[in-house]
Description:
By secondary structure, the protein is an alpha/beta fold. The chain has two domains: 3-227, Spore Coat Polysaccharide Biosynthesis Protein SpsA, Chain A (Alpha-Beta Complex), CATH 3.90.550; 232-300. 47% of the residues lie in helices and 12% in strands. Strands 3-2-1-4-6-5-7 form a seven-stranded mixed beta sheet. Strand 1 (3-9), helix 1 and strand 2 (34-40) form a beta-alpha-beta unit. The mean pLDDT is 85.
Amino acid sequence: MDVSIIVPVYNEAQSLPILHQKIRDAMSQVSVMWEVIYVDDGSQDDSLVTLEALAAEDQEHARVLAFRRNYGQTTAISAGIDHSTGEVIVLIDADLQNDPADIPMLLAKLDEGYDLVSGWRVSRQDTFVTRTLPSKVANKLISMVTGVHLHDYGCSLKAYRREVLTGFRLYGEMHRFIPAYASSVGAKIIEVPVQHHPRKFGKAKYGLERTIKVTLDLFTVKYLISYSQKPIYIFGTVGMGLILLSILDVIFLIIRRFTIGEHLIRSPLLQMGAMLFVMGFNSILLGLIAEQVMRTYHEAQSKPTYTLRRKINLKD
């Protein structure tokens, strides 16, 4: 199997027959073996029934996974990846806003040597206030924090080489951060304009509340990418900063003692200085514990701290 197309599905019964035919039309333009894995995320409409019919009709290409309840888009994507067999993974939404006709173009870009091709909805057909504007703000913030500059992290239409998806698990809303994870293992990334259509059936599953979840997940992503290998850097930096503040606090109290005669023990600043010192020392200790945990994690599983792009004249 060359290409696995993964489609998370939640209450999209009307879109699915049209989507599947569009995928078949698109994949007929490329000479690859392919499969499409539909992951029903606990739909409450007839999505699963529709998927069963599609799988029976197209047994060569259509695969279906059905969750017992709704787990969310990220979990659906993760399950699809786990059960896929292709060396190339393509993600696409089920609501027909992404166009399967763009898939051959994404595959052609991978053939140029890229590891990840990310779609960019240049002419986005969504409500500006509740969808487009928060997305633009989130894209700027994610690009700034992760250092991977993309215009449209939220576009689900992306193509990946399988090797850049290994080594990490997806939780929360973290599917949108896959380019940042892939970049951390040296993936070559390109962003290309793709088509975007107005929603024809159903209603959008996300609103402004998603922005809060994405922001919180961004803290986790930044830590995992920048500090997971050396957690002492972040814990130690915070700890040393707190200890420095406590020292400055004590110096300030000593100066006040000799200039205006104020006793140290009468000032609440002395207690604050002591608290800052203890917090800083504890932070450094937490960093050392985290360092030990990371070493245990890698050494117990014989997990390397690096990833290879290729091997030449070397046996596995």
